[in-house]
Specification:
The structure holds two protein chains of two kinds. In chain A, about 0% of the residues lie in helices and about 55% in strands. Chain A is an all-beta fold. The termini of chain A are far apart. Chain B is built from no helices and eleven strands. Classes of the chains: A mainly beta, B mainly beta.
C-alpha cells in the first residue's frame, strides 16, 4: 500500500512558465514533508521541506504548499528553467521531523522545454 | 565539507553471491540510512543506523543487513543475491535533530 503517491509520472512545461508537482499521502502520522530532485545516475538532492504546522514554505523559485486536511502537498517552480528537468520525489517522515525513515513517492519526471 | 561518499559506484555480481557496499557520511553526521531504488518500486527504505545501532528497519528480507562503525561509516551486505536485487542503492546521512537527509551518488548493483 503506497502511503505517498505522486500520480503524475511525467510533466512537461515551457521555460518561464510555472511547474506544479503534486503529492498525496495517506498516513496521518506523517508530519514533515520534503521534496528531492534527482538526475540520472546521481543521488537525490534536497530541495525544500515543510512542517505540518505550516501551509507554505518558500525558497527562491521553489514553493511548497501543504493542505493537511486533504493530505495533499504541491511543489511550485516559478519560473521553470531547462536545468530543472529531472525526477522530483516527494517524501514524508513521521512525527518529530525524523528524517531517519523517509517514505518516498515514485517520482514525477519534469521536462522543461526551451 | 565533503558529501556522502558511496563505494563502489558500480558493481556486477552473479546470482547466489554476496556483496558489501560502503557509505561514508558527512563529517559529524551520526545517522546513516540506506534505500533501494528500482524502476518499479521507487525509493524504498532499508534500514537506519545511529551510533552503531540499528534503529529502524524497512520491509526487506533478512538477506539484507548492515552495520555502522564507531566513525559513523556504514556498510550494507546482501547475501545470496537474486536477480531482483539489481538496483541503485543509496545511502543518506543526517545530523541529530536535522530535518534534511543528504544522499550519496549511490551504488548501481547489477545481478546477472
Amino acid at each position: 500500500d503506497q502511503q505517498v503517491k505522486q500520480n503524475s509520472p511525467s510533466l512537461s512545461v515551457q521555460e518561464g512558465r510555472i511547474s506544479i508537482l503534486n503529492c498525496d499521502y495517506t498516513n496521518s502520522m506523517f508530519d514533515y514533508f520534503l521534496w528531492y530532485k534527482k538526475y540520472p545516475a546521481e543521488g537525490p538532492t534536497f530541495l525544500i521541506s515543510i512542517s505540518s504546522i505550516k501551509d507554505k514554505n518558500e525558497d527562491g523559485r521553489f514553493t511548497v504548499f501543504l493542505n493537511k486536511s486533504a493530505k495533499h502537498l504541491s511543489l511550485h517552480i516559478v519560473p521553470s528553467q531547462p536545468g530543472d528537468s529531472a525526477v522530483y520525489f516527494c517524501a514524508a517522515s513521521p512525527a518529530g521531523g525524523s528524517n531517519y525513515k523517509l517514505t518516498f513517492g515514485k517520482g514525477t519526471l519534469l521536462t522543461v522545454n526551451p | 565539507k565533503a558529501g556522502v561518499t558511496q563505494t563502489p559506484r558500480y558493481l556486477i555480481k552473479t546470482r547466489g553471491q554476496q556483496v558489501t557496499l560502503s557509505c561514508s557520511p558527512i563529517s559529524g553526521h551520526r545517522s546513516v540510512s540506506w534505500y533501494q531504488q528500482t524502476p518499479g518500486q521507487g525509493l524504498q527504505f532499508l534500514f537506519e543506523y545511529f551510533s552503531e545501532t540499528q534503529r529502524n528497519k524497512g520491509n526487506f528480507p533478512g538477506r539484507f543487513s548492515g552495520r555502522q562503525f564507531s566513525n559513523s561509516r556504514s556498510e550494507m551486505n546482501v547475501s545470496t543475491l537474486e536477480l531482483g536485487d539489481s538496483a541503485l542503492y543509496l545511502c543518506a546521512s543526517s545530523s541529530y535533530g536535522n530535518t534534511e537527509a543528504f544522499f550519496g551518488q549511490g551504488t548501481r548493483l547489477t545481478v546477472v
